[in-house]
Amino acid sequence: MFADRAKIFIRSGKGGDGHCSFRRELYVPNGGPDGGDGGRGGDLIFEVDEGLNTLSDYRHRRKYAAGDGEPGGKRRCHGKDGTDLVLYVPEGTVIKEASSGKVIADMSGSNRRQVVLKGGKGGLGNQHFATATMQVPKYAQPGQPARELEVCLELKVIADVGLIGFPNVGKSTLLSRVTNADPKIANYHFTTLTPNLGVVDLEGAKGFVMADIPGLIEGASEGVGLGHEFLRHIERTKLMINVVDAAGSEGRDPVDDIHKINAELEAYNPEIAKRPQVIAANKTDLIYDPEDDPIERLKKEFEPEGIPVFPISGATGKGVSELLYYVSRRLEDMDQTPVVFEQEYFPEDELIYEELPYTVSVEDGVYIVEGPKIEKMLGYTNLDSEKGFAFFQKFLKETGILDELENKGIQEGDTVKMYGLQFDYYK
User: Per 3-state DSSP, what percentage of the chain is helix, strand, and coil (rounded to 5)?
Assistant: First the structure.
């Protein structure tokens, strides 16, 4: 099955903790601190793989994590860095933050590799905290935590021109005639359930990439049928060929069909509906009524709006060449910059405050501060020393805990409690 969407949970590696130890050797009675630093956590990276064309690899496995950094050791031994994890995706994949839908990365154009989540830095060993006045530091720095995120992967095909229209109007037949694509063709509604891409080569003119977008139906913009799954793939196209059954072989009116398709585009994304469009009046070889000329009706209705109408026959090839050369000329006059979705969500900024989560509550006049990172920091910090207490005060200030206490109305002399540690608050 063609897979063009997936939702996965990604996590970078945690930084290794710094080590707290002291040099202990024979004849060295007063060895100094020699705790090593923790290793860096692995990065979570997305990279384009030219050999992939679906997201099926992500349909059955949902969690991906880079390697954690190892803790530091004695004798200034540095912990091993965590292993980076590279996730391979097809070109055209857009990575979005799941809850907000904001774009994190568009893996197309020149963007072939992007670090989405950086691993946490390793913590410093106690060797770094020795000073002239504090020669026996009994604390080390914990490694930075991992960063985690739920993301949606969406594959949006990369093509200059998109073939749109109702099912069974001949889009696949046209694509197979003018490109090297080999779509499955049959006389059934919704035969095409996946986008097909092909390259149009023209003698004496610049070629282009054409995509057969699966057939639309009324209500597609509201998600009826597979509407959203299909409409997603025209978001990158610069020009659309609106293919219509001019002969009305299935009992539909071609003019009405064009209006309905454009109404679906407008409802889905007004910006897409404003892009240049060409009408390919297909199946002209099946028009038998000379009194009711559907081509003239189409031209009268849409050419005053600047939408040219080309009568063609995908089956016989009649009129196809004129259509393709016109499309090539229009593309030459258009902006050649590829349609790339700009980044809207920046994990480095959005997740910065998640590194040190905490809660501040008040019970019977006592301000209680809790949080896993606070508990861990207390375990690494020697509050009996002046240097250690200053280190912890700096931690409280940098994490915003002191500001939060003041927002809760704390006054000088009030009691603060943190996991068995209790002290009076003074500025």
Answer: 25, 20, 50
151: left (phi over 0), alpha (psi -120 to 50) or beta: beta
Three-state secondary-structure class, residue 291 = coil
Alpha-carbon span 95 to 86, nearest angstrom: 14
Closest CA to 369 of 316, 422, 322: 422
Answer for the pair 105, 116: CB distance below 8 angstroms, yes or no.
Answer: yes
**How high is the pLDDT of residue 117?**
93
Residue 20 DSSP SS3: coil
The two beta strands, 196-200 and 113-117, are unpaired
Q: List 97's β-bridge partners, or say none.
A: 151
Span between the terminal Cα atoms of the chain, in Å: 64
Instruction: Please give the single-letter amino acid code of residue 86.
Output: V
**Nearest-angstrom CA–CA distance, 118 and 12:** 6
pLDDT tens digits, residue range 328-354? Answer: 898 888 877 777 788 888 887 766 544
Residue pointed to by tokens 């080309």: 310
Please state, as a whole number, how many other Cβ atoms lie within 10 Å of the Cβ of residue 330: 17
Give the containing element (helix H, strand E) for 212: strand 208-212
SS3 for 366? strand
pLDDT, one tens digit per residue, over 96-138 is 998 888 899 999 888 899 999 999 989 888 887 776 666 677 7
HSE-CB of 113 using CA atoms within 13 angstroms: 6
pLDDT digits (tens, 9 = 90+) for 185-219: 444 444 445 667 777 888 888 888 888 776 565 55
Rg of the chain (C-alpha set): 32
Q: CA geometry: angle at 334 spanning 332 and 340, to 5°?
A: 120
From the list 78, 75, 77, the residue with the least C-alpha distance to 32 is: 75
Burial class (CB in 10 A: 0-12, 13-18, 19+), 37: buried
Residue found by looking up tokens 């024979």 in the block: 26
Give whole-number Cα distances, 276 to 151, 166, 396, in Å.
Answer: 33, 19, 58
**Of 27-36, 204-213, 318-327, where does the model show the most confidence?**
318-327
Sheet holding 196-200, edge to edge: 196-200, 208-212, 161-164, 239-245, 277-282, 309-311
